Amino acid sequence: MGSSSESRARxxxxxxxxxxxxxxxxxxxxxxxxxxxxxxxxxxxDASPLTKSAIHYYFDDMxxxxxxxxxxxxxxxxxxxxxxxxxxxxxxxxxxAAVRAYLEIFAERPNAALLWFSYWVDVGQKSRLEPIDRxxxxxxxxxxxxxxxxxxxxxxxxxxxxxxxxxGTLMQQAVRPLPFAELMPEIASVCRLDSAGPGExxxxxxxxxx
Length: 210
What we know:
This protein has 210 residues and is mainly alpha-helical. Helix content is 75%, strand content 0%.
């Protein structure tokens, strides 16, 4: 949040904070439906019960609103990934369920990958990478914890490498989708799952229970 809106926020009532939430939720809807370029103050106002002038009152600029809305999208993504992992007990099954859920989110919403990469380009061009870096680190943190539970050597490094792999895979899947079963050996290699844990054996570590 920008400095001037932060200063105003200290004086906001619960009702005013609720209006700010309405703006963020409206921007989240516009982004998911129409993409980054279409997320203007007018479009957000049209998707909310508030006016365009109210939007400018509660936020310094559209970048601030978009950052908040994209953070909500990431939060929803992380919630779904954690929920998928929590359906299993074995650490290796939790890991595979989480990775599958991550890829399924984007497979179900073909525009989602384009939205994220558009946002990435936009913040890069404006030299304001902190918001998207926070989101990336949150996802890497989830992967790190899942890998550490298996365990694998250097879980932080493997989680970072896996996240980089998944970003590229999102683009590949948008052009030429591959079944998850075909991606699993590559993911296992990136994470060095074949060397994970003492005495378990490669098959026990790499493959989820059926």
